[in-house]
Amino acid sequence: MQERKEDRSLGELFGQLTAQMSTLFRKEVELARTEMTQSATRVGRNAAMAGAGAAVAYAGALAIVYGVIVLLAELGLALWLSSLIVGLILAIVGVVLIQRGREQLQGDALAPRRTIETLKDDADWARERTR
Q1: How far apart are the first and last CA of the chain?
Q2: 50 burial class (0-12, 13-18, 19+ CB within 10 angstroms)?
Q3: Cβ-defined contacts of 104-113 (< 8 Å, 24+)
Q4: pLDDT digits (tens, 9 = 90+) for 64-102
Q5: Of 106, 115, 110, 87, which Cα lies nearest the Cα of 41?
Q6: What is the phi-psi region of residue 108: left when phi exceeds 0, alpha when psi lies from -120 to 50, beta otherwise?
Q7: Exposed, middle or buried, 69 (CB in 10 Å: 0-12/13-18/19+)?
């Protein structure tokens, strides 16, 4: 078996390396496609769930806001002042939530991490094989 490997010409070795690299590339593309599909599916499902939850929470929040405004008015504040106070507090909370959500979206990359890592490994492997 050892003689067989030594008997192969440079052209045969190069042809075998080219075939292996081609197969490897196709497998990497397939892995990237699978990984991106899984990521997109997960993000879509989570976004739909968040949207439905936000719609329900919005209705509840409106009822609570109205209740707080009425409570402050019953405690002696003018209706306009109680509405202003509640509105300012809600605006501040909203800005904080928007900033936090933007930070989280930027941190959750959709890049196919496993594929990138295996491509780096493949490049190292190819360099070793061509030396």
Answers
A1: 22
A2: exposed
A3: 108/43, 110/36, 110/39, 110/40, 110/43, 112/31, 112/32, 112/35, 112/36, 112/39, 113/35
A4: 999 999 999 999 999 999 999 999 999 999 999 999 988
A5: 110
A6: beta
A7: buried
What's the sign of the alpha-carbon dihedral 88, 90, 92, 98? Answer: negative
Find where tokens 């078996």 sit: 1
Tell if the pTM clears 0.70, that is, is over it: no
Cβ-contact 123, 10 below 8 angstroms: no
Cα dihedral 123, 28, 115, 30, rounded to 10, equals: 170
Give the C-alpha separation, 57 to 59, whole Å: 5
Among 71, 74, 66, smallest CA distance to 90 is for 66
Task: State how far the alpha carbon of 36 is from the alpha carbons of 10, 89, 121, 131, in Å.
Answer: 38, 40, 20, 34
Token code pair at residue 47: 């976004």
